[in-house]
Every structure is written in structure tokens, then in C-alpha cells.
Amino acid sequence: MKKILFLVLLFSSQLYAQSSFEYRIDSIVSNAIAQRAFPGAQIYIQKKGEVLLHKAYGYHTYDSIHQTTLEDVFDLASVTKTMAATLALMKLYEEGKLDVDRPFSEYWPDWQKKKDKKNISFRAVLAHQAGLIPYIVFLNKITKSKGKLKKRWVSKTQNNPYNKEAFKNLYIREDIEKIIDRKARKSKLGELKYRYSGLTFLLYPRMVGRLSNTNFEDYLNQNFYRPLELKKIGFNPTSWIDPSHIVPTEYDSLFRKTLTKGWVHDENAAILGGVSGNAGLFANTNSIAPLLEMLLNKGVYKGKQYLKDSTVEEFTRVQFPENDNRRGLGFDKPLIGNDTLSFEDSYPAPLASKNSYGHSGFTGTFYWVDPDQDLIYIFLSNRVYPSRSQQGIYDLAVRKEILFEAFKFNNENAYSSH
């Protein structure tokens, strides 16, 4: 009888703890929506194999008409870097088709005649340690001074060589790839120190295609998305999901002159036809969670191995700590010395272990995996609606607050407040 009573009390205590946890998350998100940090969101939190919270909040826009559901997909922005490009590179790495300690130029011959880039290692490039410039706005190439599109580069109908669909009835010349390649090749290098750059991620889909003899999207589908049975993940979502389940991003006043919905928010990815290693992937929490669980389990999901444990460990470890560079290969990591920092100064949050990793996206997306605490956290939102000038998600530290709550849950060593 005492044993039964103990189990009842234990179960009740667990239910109360989880209910209290959900209430705190609800409060954080409700406050953020009320302050217009974002109109809607999806959140997934799994700890020690148990889903603590999986919920949709708010609406697609602030008119409160179209409620956000778990079936909806969000523009992942730079989360694409790890959930698409880096995954493909990890697979090529363990297939022996890519050596991260060889020069990047061996896999991208366009750089072999550039003295400043010829010998940069692939490892340095992936860890943002190569001194590459952060970004080049290629939209400037196809627009005039007042934002009008150049007819030489843009067509309202699809025909050779206008085959890259950037928006409805808006096609870009395939030659734009040559412009991107040339500007990337000629770009100036800075100091060999940590400097976040998305430049090479624009090149990876074609590099992956060459190394695998398979289309970039097909390679991802064959090796990850399809066997993991991910239903709602991919590029150019209007081709595979009802538009009513696509969450809009920004009113694009520069390029497409309307609300961007179903088309990638990032302009560079857009002029590449929506498929890029830098941005372009759309997904929901249902389809990201299995990918992250596979990584958490060192490449294994439901008994099937997708990546070797050594591959996962290699890509998710800090690469250049001696240079005060926290990054892994493609993946983001906690700040070096994060455990000594205050809540305000920490990243991604206090209590994140040194072995944890993740990535954020400009549109308001974020995920984090912590093997030491057996934790998976996914946060998807469209914080750029109606404009990228919206800073509430940063001012309120929404993603950090929620992650901190997840770290604290059932953690006896966690401090209770900040």
C-alpha cells in the first residue's frame, strides 16, 4: 500500500512539474506575441526521451485570422545551413568523398587560381575561421538604382536561360550562378579569425551535386528526409504543401513588392531558385525533431544508422578554441566560457553544456541539442513579419528564456532564476 501511495505521489509530482513548466513557457510566448515579437510560433522540447512540450501558438499574422497549427511550415532561414547543407557534407565526409583538412579549392576548383584562397582548408571555411566576408547582396546585380528589375536578368515567363524561379512569374537567368561564383572568388579575405560567413553555403548545393553525382535535393531526400519519414520539410514548399499551411514572412519592399509566403525570404536564395545551402528550407517541428534525435543519438534513429557516431562528434565539436572561435563544422556552439557568464551575456543560455550545439535563423527560428542533458529544443517563428526591423525576439530574449527553462526542468543543480 505504501509503495502504491509513493508511486501515486511521484506521478502527481511529475504531472505538477510538467504543468508548471508548460505554464511558464505559455507565459513567455504569450507576452512575446502581445509585444509583437512574432505573430505565431511552434515549440518542441524533449528531455531524457520525454516530450515535455509540443505546441503551436498565435496566428500566421497579427490579424488573428489564421491560427498557427503544428501542421504549418516555417521558413527556416539559416537553420538550412545545418539541416540541409551540413548534413549533406557530413554524409560525403564519411563516404570518403570529402576531407575537411584538404583545401576547399580541391572541391571548388574556381578558387584554385586565387592565391589568397587556394590553400584555405575546408575545416576553416565550415568553422567560419577562413576570414571570408559574411555576405554579398547579389540582388543588387539584377536591380536598378530605384529597385526596378533589369530585363537582362529577369523575365516574367520561364524560358531559356530564365529558369530560376524566384517568385510567381519572376524568373532569373541561370547565368546568375557565374556572377555569384565570380564575386565569391574575388571577395577579399579578412583576418584568419572567427567571422561568421554564409558565402560558401551558396555554393554547396552544386558542390554536393558534383561530389555525389546526385541533385542536392535528391541527395538529402535519399539519405535523410525520406528514410526518416519526414513529411513536411523541403525547398519551394508550394510544390508539396497546401499554401494555407505555409507561414508568411516579410512584406518584401525591395524585390518582390508583396508579402513573401511560400517563397524563401532570403534574397540570395531566391535568385538561385529557392534552393541554397544558406537558406530556403521550410519545415515544421514534426519534421525537424527526428533529424535532431538522430544527431542526439550519434547518427542513429529508431535503430537505423544514418551517420557514424564519429562523424557527428567531429562536426559538432569546437574546432578552433585557441582562436576564441566557438563554432563546430557548420554547427553553432555555446560561447567559450559560457558557464561563467550571466544570463544576459550567455549564449545560447545558462546551463548549456560544452557538448551542445544548434543554429539560429534570421526569420526567427532556432534549435539546440544538448547530449549531456539529453535535450532537444526547437523554436520556429516568423519574427520578420511584417518587417525584418522587428527586434522583439531579441529584446525579450524569448528563445533563450525558453531554453533556460528547459535546462532547469528536473535539474537539481540549476539555479531557479536570473
Descriptive account of the structure:
The protein is α+β, with helices and mostly antiparallel strands. It has one domain: DD-peptidase/beta-lactamase superfamily (Beta-lactamase). The chain is 30% helix and 15% strand. The chain has 12 helices and 15 strands. The strands form 5 sheets. The chain has a 5-stranded antiparallel beta sheet, with helices on both faces. It has a 3-stranded antiparallel beta sheet with strand order 3-10-7. A 3-stranded antiparallel beta sheet has the order 4-6-5. A hairpin with a 2-residue loop joins strand 1 (40-47) and strand 2. Helix 2 (80-94) runs parallel beside helix 6. The two termini are 42 Å apart.
Keywords:
single chain, alpha+beta, 418 residues, Beta-lactamase, five-stranded antiparallel sheet, globular
